[in-house]
Specification:
Elements: E1 2-5, H1 11-18, H2 27-36, E2 41-46, E3 50-57, E4 67-75, H3 84-98, E5 103-109, H4 113-121, E6 125-130, E7 140-146
Parallel strand pairs: 4-5
Antiparallel strand pairs: 1-2, 2-3, 3-4, 5-7, 6-7
Helix pairs in contact: 1-2
Bound molecules: coenzyme A.
Coenzyme A binds at residues 20, 73-75, 80-86, 108, 112-115, 117-118, 121.
Amino acid sequence: MKLRKGKSKDKAFITQAAYEFQKFGPYHEIIPRWFDDPWIQTFILELERPVGFIMLGPMFTSFWQPTIDVTAIYVVPEYRKKGLGTFLLKAAEKFSRKEGYRYLRAHVGFENKKALALFKKADFVIKKKIDNYYPSGLGAYELRKDLRRKEEGNET
Ligand SMILES: CC(C)(COP(=O)(O)OP(=O)(O)OC[C@H]1O[C@@H](n2cnc3c(N)ncnc32)[C@H](O)[C@@H]1OP(=O)(O)O)[C@@H](O)C(=O)NCCC(=O)NCCS
């Protein structure tokens, strides 16, 4: 298993995966745009082929702040529930800590039970409940992890 930075050849994989996020809005366009955004870093998880990715970067502003966002995390359906999502999040934590960020943040749709369970298991805590967060009108929880609290994780 290999984790590497995204390259232009990964664009087709990212674009195809992005269709799964369509219920939240036009993410089949937004996610490929994030892939091209120099402020957003994409890491690809590869076995014999790409099987997942995580995107990290500032969601709301482009100037430096103590918080970095998981803008997207994805594992191909046939490789889910095998710990790969957790692996991607752990790698994101390591990268963000190294880059000097204090908080890792994510927004997860109210009804996205799998993703909520993934982040909670990784010791993210719910900070806000935001109605109408997505372009589709669906709401999201804002979750955050304090990267300085390495072992205990939870703040609340
Ligand atoms: C969310 C996603 C990345 C999880 O990836 P994954 O590789 O399956 O995650 P893991 O195997 O590391 O699972 C971690 C934990 O998440 C939870 N989880 C994952 N899939 C679940 C499911 N189908 N049902 C319930 N809980 C689930 C469990 O708590 C699991 O821990 P456990 O296996 O010890 O029970 C994957 O389902 C996905 O790509 N979904 C579509 C895209 C998406 O919704 N992304 C998140 C947008 S914010």
